[in-house]
TrEMBL record:
Pfam families: DUF3054 (PF11255). It comes from Luteipulveratus flavus. InterPro entries: DUF3054 (IPR021414). This is DUF3054 domain-containing protein. The chain crosses the membrane at residues 35-57, 69-86, 92-112. The keyword Transmembrane applies. Keywords: Membrane, Transmembrane, Transmembrane helix.
Amino acid sequence: MSRRVVTALVLDVVLVLLFAAIGRASHDEGNVVLGVLGTAWPFLVGTAVGWAVVTLAGRRPPLDVRSGIPVWVCAVAVGMLLRRLVGDGTALSFVIVATIVLGVFLLGWRALDTLRHSRQDRATAS
């Protein structure tokens, strides 16, 4: 696995954990570390499913926005399904917030990375 792929995977994990941490902080609930992990695990599983789907179907890791979309969709869909299965909340407001925040996080860094690489390519070509 290349350094760029490892960095992308780690960044996705960190951003899902950040999403959970922000949510937990806004509700001021119990043990911070356990709470974040308890909130994040379904979305981490969903993110892993998304990575597997994209990598197996496209035979390349999800490093750009287009290939990041299935990662985002799986993170939310699988995450909510797992939360529902274990009896955790899936209120419509939470689904909406999770969809938006994870979309911004998981697609946003990919958009910025694509922009950075395109600028580097133009500078190299000049």
